[in-house]
Design goal:
Distance between the termini: 11 Å
Number of strands: 5
CATH topology of the largest domain: Rossmann fold
Largest sheet: 3 strands, parallel
Structural class: alpha/beta
CATH architecture of the largest domain: 3-Layer(aba) Sandwich
Oligomer: single chain
Strand content: 5-15%
Length: 205
């Protein structure tokens, strides 16, 4: 079986151009979409991700706000920051960059974000909506990005056998939920493999 190289960079550029057009349309109605990113600590990878997100927002014409907090910030202070952003009408989406320092309960912080602003799709409300196939759900970025690559590359998933390696709540599980939904980019027969899977190579053949 021959392999097909999928050009994610080109697809991302197309999507960013589409987003910029949608932002211009909203701006014409007096609405500037705003994204706030909360970064706690100095994790090097997180610093790179946050800069990338801010740059993408500016290129699309969106308002971008990064809240940088010290690694030893009390959990109550982080939660208060989330509360402030939830109430801010200029902020339409909130991302809390993971990982958080060990003394902060990530689940508590993620569940504090207003589900209507939870653009990472980590709040239980959005997780449940993804499982149910609710089109109003915010979907986790990586699984949704993969689904978009499949759709825009005209990869037929209906009736296909898909193997997902990994069962994380950020990628593996939501990816499985998206692929089994009825409709474009779904209707696949999905197997989720993980660290306890026997003979992974055979499962992936």
């Amino acid at each position: 079986m021959s392999a097909t190289l999928l050009d994610g960079v080109a697809i991302a550029a197309t999507i960013r151009a589409e987003v910029a057009e949608q932002v211009r349309a909203l701006a014409g109605r007096g609405v500037i979409p705003g994204l706030a990113v909360v970064l706690v600590g100095e994790d090097p990878a997180s610093q790179v991700y946050v800069r990338s997100k801010g740059k993408a927002c500016l290129e699309a014409g969106m308002h971008s706000e990064t809240i940088r907090m010290a690694a030893d910030s009390p959990a109550a202070e982080v939660l208060a920051t989330i509360d402030r952003l939830n109430a801010d009408p200029a902020i339409h989406g909130i991302l809390c960059q993971l990982p958080l320092p060990p003394h902060i309960n990530s689940d508590e912080v993620l569940q504090r974000i207003d589900p209507a602003k939870d653009v990472d799709g980590f709040h239980p409300v959005n997780v449940g909506k993804v499982v149910l196939g609710d089109p109003t759900a915010f979907k986790p970025a990586t699984p949704y990005g993969i689904q978009q690559i499949l759709l825009r590359s005209r990869i037929e998933t209906r009736g296909a056998r898909a193997v997902i390696v990994g069962r994380s709540t950020i990628v593996g599980r939501p990816m499985a939920n998206l692929l089994i939904q009825s409709g474009p980019g779904g209707d696949a027969t999905v197997t989720v493999a993980h660290s306890r899977t026997r003979d992974l190579a055979a499962v992936c053949r």
